[in-house]
Amino acid sequence: MVMFPVDKISLRRMYDDISRRLAASGVGDAATFLNYGYVSVGDGDESQVDVPAHSLNGNSVRLVLELIGNTALDGRRILDVGCGRGGAVGLIAKMFDVEIAGIDLSPEAVMFCRSNCDAPSARFDVGDAEHLPFEDGVHDVVVNIESSHGYPDLGKFLSEVKRVLKPGGRFLYTDLQPSEKWAYIRSELARLGFLVKADRDITANVIASRDEAAPQSVKAFGSESEAMNSFLAVPGSELYELMRQRILEYRIIRCCVK
Prior knowledge:
By secondary structure, the protein is α/β, with parallel strands linked by helices. The protein contains nine helices and seven strands. Helix 4 links the parallel strand 2 and strand 3. Helix 1 crosses helix 4. The longest helix is centred in the last third of the chain and has 19 residues. The N and C termini lie far apart (about 35 Å).
């Protein structure tokens, strides 16, 4: 099965290389999102606001808005773990009255975020999801978007999320995982004292997004290969087929600290 590296050195190198590839392609400044995106396929949509007009990464923006759903963010202190190239941080900072921080394992990605994101309420730092560089109970909301599949110790990450959240804090989580792994994630959330408010399968929505947007993603990276096609979940690639066969499942989970 093609998945992502689960040792941190390889993962950091991979995402540093992605940032360099995007910079070399000439479209790097516009490539602020790496998530697979979301397309409505019927009932069940939860976004409370529309995708801003003229968004360059509309499907990826929609995924972030679907994850937020009806969560009240104004006035909150927010942390985006695995912020990548800062798309979600910049979007949230511009659409809501928040103080928001993004951390990522990739120094290249963090350098890009710092130079590209002009939201005054946003800050970015290099950080490890399994050892969050924050004191206990300092955040109202933790966001994690399509990042945890590469964490060597997912349980440690979830424990760190609980540690940095205030009492009653919210965890907004979405990712692609092997279908059987979601049972483990639910059990860990329960063990840590999270109350799950929403648990939604959006695999069909993500597949629809890949059908629509993956060819443009390939062009942004400036080269095509079997490995790159799978990383981008291009239709027909191994990762795309694993989603289509339901071996991999993409879900949204929203929960709060009891």
